[in-house]
Amino acid sequence: MSGGQSRLSQLTDTETAPLLYETVRNMETRQLLGVADRTLRQLVVPSLPLDADQWYDRKVPSGLAIRPGPVRGNTTTLRRCLGSETRERYRERADETATGTVTLLDRSLSVAGEDGVGWLDESVLEPPAMWALKFHGFEFLSWATLGYDEPTACPAVVETVEDWLTDWDGADATRVGAPGYLRRAWTPHAVSLRTINLVRLCAWVRRDTGVEALAARLVYRNAAFLANHVEHDVGGNHLIENGAALVMAGTLFDGDGEGWLQQGVDVLVDASDQFLADGGHFERSPMYHGIALVRYLTAVDLLRRQGRSVPPELREVAVAATEFLQRLSPPDGRIPLLNDAVFGEAPPLPAVLRYADAVGVDATATPGESMPASGYYWLGEGDDRLLVDGGQPGPAHLPGHTHNDQLSVAFWADGTRLLTDTGTPAYAPTNRREYARSVRAHNTVQYGDVEPMPVGGSYLLGRRVEPTATVTERDGVALFDGRYSREPSPRYSHRRRVYHDEDWWLVWDTVDADEEATVTSRLHVAPDIDVERGDDGRQPRFDLRDGGSTLASVVPLGAATATVATSEYCPEYGRAESRAKLSFQSEGSAVQLGFLLSTGAPRSVAVDHDGTTVAGLSVDDDYRSLPAPE
């Protein structure tokens, strides 16, 4: 499937139709009703003899006044927490808009000309749909408000912003009720982002630029629309965006603003159950976790700046989700690219933690602590750490961001990322999207060419598997023990044990199946790391090198073949690059294989096993017994 698939073609496609059935089967009733409601509105509203756009426009009171102080203070705090590198990138993007160009998802488009802004031009609406979502969400406003301290520092940008907002306000294509409006300019998710960015603009431009009144009017119209279109049916991170937008709009206005503020708080309270016992967001994407946490931190800060009480649910999420991010923090300070995650969409991980501290969230956790509710387990300390994903897939009713990363690992040595996940290219239903979600793209084991959970389209997911995992420590050796089973045919089970002590990590996989097949263990190496093959005469060894230094070595165990090839890495939306990939393979219906990671001197390793437990480790001539799993 090289391009996008329509929903009709998915229904008739023999590969995706079963996935569509399984995805729909797990959806909640209110999700299905929401799909029906949006479809009906899209068909009916444009054909009604009333002007829905004017209905919202008439709701805006004359002499609209704003109270920008709380949002202005919050925006200043967030801006100061972002860091100089991020702010410099924002300023460059903001300056680019003054030339009529917008860059999103690594794709630059000239969106403005003599005829105005092409809000619904074919180039804007072509896949991936996220480009239009972010454009219609006015992300270009955040580059100015969070990049520059004052509008006087970028007059050309402010002039462009005023022109574009005027164009939006008067364009027929961007009217409420225009054909396809709920899937284009007025998608509630886009309305939420647009509202947040417009609110910050109102607080940033002050009263001497001519933009404030227009922006305030647009905030009012968008908030009034969003209040009628909260995505309770969609849930997930969309619902959090809705709630945060209503809180920010409510903070800006008196009168109706009180109702929006309370509605937004209620939505965020309702969405607080999306966070697991360890504080992790239930979609299990570090990127979306960071975005969602920033929304809760903003709501907490705005309520406090107004002297209002903060509901305990919001305080608890702010603290627990911050502590989760502290525990998840890798040695290099950048999020692991687990499930649907990329760099550059959420604020950088250290910036989010600084923001939490700046708004008074008292959270204290130690980087490297495991997070069992989310299924993330650290083995190691300091700059040398292995992260194992032994958790459940994302929620059954929201499978879109779930990947086949069962029992996958990521690895850092000397503070450098050596083994990494793949990231996410985009959300268009393409071969590249399917690959990024597939078991082939993760540092784990594959049986034959089988996916543990079938994936397809942009967000479809077949029958789920449910891993279980434990971590124990005996005789000074830490042991992760995780497993899952896949059925129906082809039926197989995968068990992964990871032993760790001092400067080595032994990963041992057992695959039992009904039929013989090739079993492949893959390790995807970070793109800046070189792989150099060595051989001491007894077994192959792969050195992972950064420049002239060997940071770690990988010794395959029990594999019939060990090869080096390349794979694709997508660290940002729309961007792909090549990296090294190690593959270890064996054949059979009961296969055991593994590898040793070591940051110390190169080692020769032999493992004894009895078919169920790893019995010992031989490092050169020094034999060491390993504790059997309980």
TrEMBL record:
Location in or out of the cell: Periplasm
Keywords: Lyase, Periplasm, Signal
Species of origin: Haloarcula onubensis
Pfam families: Hepar_II_III_C (PF07940), Hepar_II_III_N (PF16889)
UniProt domain Heparin-sulfate lyase N-terminal: residue ranges: 219-343
InterPro entries (UniProt xref): Chondroitin_lyas, Hepar_II_III_C, Hepar_II_III_N
Name under which the protein is recorded: Heparinase II/III family protein
Keyword Signal set for record: yes
UniProt entry tagged with the keyword Signal: yes
Cited PANTHER family: HEPARIN-SULFATE LYASE
Segments forming domain Heparinase II/III-like C-terminal: 365-587
